[in-house]
Design brief:
Elements: H1 18-28, H2 30-49, H3 54-76, H4 78-94, H5 109-121, H6 126-143, H7 153-162
Helix pairs in contact: 2-3, 4-5, 5-6, 6-7
Length: 163
């Protein structure tokens, strides 16, 4: 793992090997890929079933667009997931990583993969990783207002820990 060259004053994050980066991208983006496949499967399923009712096609179109929009939203956060992992790797290399630092990633199911990978690289066994992540996820879910998206868990968790 090499350190990425950046301007002075910026955090120098470790670079991932190309194959490692590709595998992490696929792993982190599996929800986006699954949603995209589901969005494509609706109209294809109607076509294969030979449905000709306009109402069914319109409903499938609306559902596909909604699912596809969510897939794009999840997919756009891919670079942020890799960045969060690289920050955790930097902390691991410096010896400053603590499991509590992944708390902010536990409110969003997609970022829980980043939290799990960070804890895995820190050497925690699977059962311990699962317990830590589930505990933080429950804390975020009970502390955040229902109308907030899961990505705002960081603010609600930080507010809870400050109290």
């Amino acid at each position: 793992m090499r350190l990425k060259r950046q301007s002075p004053g910026k955090l120098r994050l470790p670079e991932l090997r190309p194959l490692e980066s590709l595998l992490l991208r696929v792993s982190f983006q599996r929800y986006a890929l699954l949603l995209a496949a589901a969005a494509a499967a609706l109209p294809v399923g109607l076509w294969l079933a030979g449905v000709s009712a306009l109402a069914a096609w319109l409903a499938a179109l609306v559902a596909s667009l909604a699912i596809g929009a969510r897939a794009l939203e999840v997919g756009r956060r891919g670079p942020a997931k890799l960045h969060a992992l690289r920050v955790a790797l930097h902390r691991l290399e410096r010896g400053t990583f603590a499991p509590e630092q992944i708390r902010r990633h536990c409110g969003d199911p997609c970022f829980r993969l980043v939290a799990d990978e960070s804890l895995r690289r820190a050497g925690l066994p699977r059962r311990a990783r699962r317990g830590i992540i589930q505990g933080y996820a429950r804390a975020c879910a009970t502390n955040a207002p229902r109308w907030w998206s899961s990505t705002t868990c960081e603010a609600s968790c930080d507010r809870r820990s400050a109290a």
